[in-house]
Specification:
The complex is a heterodimer of chains A (278) and B (218).
Chain A lengths: L28 H14 L7 E5 L7 H4 L3 E4 L5 H11 L4 E7 H7 L1 H10 L4 E6 L34 H8 L3 E6 L3 H13 L4 E6 L12 H4 L1 E2 L8 H10 L4 E7 L16 H7 L3
Chain B lengths: L20 H12 L3 H14 L6 H28 L3 H25 L33 H25 L3 H27 L19
Helix pairs in contact in B: 2-5, 3-4, 3-6, 4-5, 5-6
The chains are: A alpha/beta (278), B mainly alpha (218).
Chain lengths: 278, 218
């Protein structure tokens, strides 16, 4: 008989660390942090059972602000680190945090293959259409006509459509959220975490310093006028024709997550050393 | 959830979108001039109609969630200002957070609850957040106490209007009585903050001037 009493559910606050975020005042990432902790509390998780893995950029500072296990990794490589962790420790809940620069540009290739592999991860990208940490360069999701000192006249480049790419590459869950709705975003993150396989949540998270016009997003977002579909092609068609402001779960599939058997053929480090000796 | 402005479709990438410092300057002002009464009416209507406010206890759970969410947001603002070395405004937000938390605690005491049956995350409003929760995009690292009080005043007015409209919309006598009491309390807070604002120096026109600004792209 198990004599250990069930631990009491934790509040969202219990998942926050003692470090205070250093994002700019007004940054959407504050609300995303709050949504992370609310989602963890909602799912009755414990900090010691969760790992938050990130790359580089403003959004990737999140692991330090939670008291879960954290890994602030290499630029664009958060998914590689997270996949390794999840495959080695399937008992952990692994959440990955990234931004539009880190996730879609430097980490673009990892993004494609993470969708394809379908490891049981929740990938949250805080998209503000700009490289904020390095002072305002255009990112893959920046509008082609965004005119700034660092991109005079705009880049003229077509924007990357992360949700459609995720669907085409095989992500098992695709959603869009808005930082200005932290409770709604927490629900979406929780649903992404509950769904087995690779779940992708793009969060529109305003950068008030380099993109002050994004303050208007709160007037522009709206709940997606459709119910989530299990048909990836249908979801992709919807996404190809929307204006990027529909919020909600957009696709939920049922692909089996990739998880090789643990312990089978496990080798001692000295065996591996001998095997790979030159 | 906010909807499209005037039903007009707005494309996020349709126009030239150069970063405008003026947008920053006007952001705080513009938001405060938005119609809080209309928003509160909408929120109250939905909360009273569709959502679960069917008894005085459920109403108080909503009120608690609203106060707790507001307290948490002001505490976040205080942390943010502290990190950016704006200590005067940080202290003011800290004080506002304590005030809201005290209101939340009073609700618990009044109801004889050890903890509320509903947290802010369990309660859904017509808007994305509760009617007393401050908007994070209102912040600026150089803001002054006057700005912080303007934010607080805006939120207290929204809260007052929310309860007023809830009192009108509900058919439950207990909920109506509770809403009227809360409306009176929030109206008192509005008066207090208005007095506080009168004693607080107004920022000069160049309050945002920074000889070494963080924005390179302006």
């Amino acid at each position: 008989m198990n004599t250990v009493a069930a631990a009491a559910p934790l509040t969202a606050q219990a998942f926050k660390s003692d470090y205070k975020p250093i994002w700019c005042p007004g940054c959407g990432d504050y609300s995303v942090l709050s949504s992370f902790t609310k989602a963890f509390a909602k799912l009755n998780l414990r900090p010691e059972n969760v790992a938050v893995v990130s790359g580089i950029g403003c959004s990737s500072r999140i692991p330090a602000y939670t008291n879960c296990y954290g890994f602030h990794g290499v630029h664009g490589r958060s998914l590689a680190a997270a996949a390794g962790l999840k495959l080695a420790r399937p008992d952990l809940t692994v959440v990955v945090a990234s931004g539009d620069g880190d996730g879609y540009s430097i980490g673009g290739n990892h993004f494609l293959h993470a969708c394809r592999r379908n490891v049981d991860l929740t990938y949250v990208v805080m998209d503000n259409h700009v490289y904020g940490m390095t002072k305002g360069q255009p990112s893959p999701t920046t509008e082609p006509d965004w005119d700034s000192k660092l991109s005079p006249g705009g880049t003229g480049l077509r924007t990357f459509n992360p949700l459609v790419i995720a669907l085409a590459a095989g992500a098992n869950f695709v959603a869009r959220a808005f930082a200005g709705d932290p409770n709604g975003t927490a629900e979406i993150i929780a649903e992404a975490m509950r769904t087995p396989g690779f779940s992708f949540v793009e969060i529109l998270s305003p950068c008030v310093t380099f993109r002050p016009e994004q303050r208007e997003w709160k007037q522009m977002v709206r709940p997606a006028p459709v119910t989530p579909t299990e048909d990836a092609a249908r979801a992709a068609r919807r996404l190809m024709s929307d204006d990027g402001m529909n919020i909600g779960v957009l696709f939920k599939g049922d692909r089996k997550p990739y998880q090789p058997p643990i312990g089978k053929g496990k080798k001692h480090p000295s065996d591996l050393e001998a095997e790979f000796a030159l | 959830m906010s909807t499209k402005k005037s039903g007009k479709k707005v494309s996020k990438s349709s126009s030239k979108t150069r970063a405008k410092p003026a947008a920053k300057k006007t952001a705080m002002k513009a938001k405060r001039t938005a119609a809080p009464k209309r928003a509160a009416a909408k929120a109250a209507g939905k909360t009273a109609g569709k959502a679960a406010v069917k008894s005085a206890a459920e109403f108080m759970a909503h009120a608690y969630a609203m106060e707790a969410e507001a307290a948490e947001r002001y505490a976040e603002f205080a942390d943010s200002m502290e990190v950016h070395n704006n200590r005067e405004v940080a202290e003011l937000f800290r004080k506002l957070s304590r005030i809201e938390q005290r209101h939340a605690d009073q609700i618990l005491e009044q109801m004889g609850w050890k903890q509320s049956p509903a947290t802010a995350a369990d309660v859904r409003w017509e808007g994305a957040e509760g009617p007393e929760t401050a908007d994070p995009t209102e912040l600026h690292y150089l803001m002054q106490p006057y700005h912080a009080l303007q934010i607080a005043l805006h939120n207290e007015k929204r809260a007052r209007d929310f309860f007023a409209h809830l009192a009108k919309a509900t058919k439950d006598v207990g909920v109506r009585q509770g809403a009227l009491e809360m409306e009176e309390e929030e109206a008192e807070h509005v008066r207090l903050i208005e007095e506080w604002l009168k004693r607080t120096p107004k920022p000069d026109a160049n309050w945002q001037a920074d000889p070494d600004p963080p924005v390179l792209s302006d």
